[in-house]
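__Record contents__

***
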Amino acid sequence: MYTIFITLIILGVVECGSYEMKRPRKPEPPFLKNMTREAKREYHEILRNRNETIAKQKQQVLAWARNHSIEAQVQQFEAELKQHKTELKANVTSLLAALPQAYQRLNQITDNENQTPIQLKEALNQFRNSSKMVRRR
């Protein structure tokens, strides 16, 4: 009985572990939502080809989209992706510009020995809240 119990526990752990080891899939682009299984397979096959340049893959995806009458949706998706990338670059650039000043302020707070631990904690909380404002710009 004990052996069966241990065997079940080991099998359960192995099964849970194998589930955890599977990579989560990236969400599919919205233009694939109503596509057939075959059309999705064709799309993923284009992206799976690691020997092609990104530009060539984009051309192949557009040709695929033309064949499936969803070229406008794919172009809209690409435009939104490009816009997101532009915003991300701008946000990172502004964050990097603010970083030296934030680092200097953090050092001033932590190097100040004329404060109590409670005051240090409050100053760090204020710093954290002010840096959240920098991130939201």
The mean pLDDT is 86.
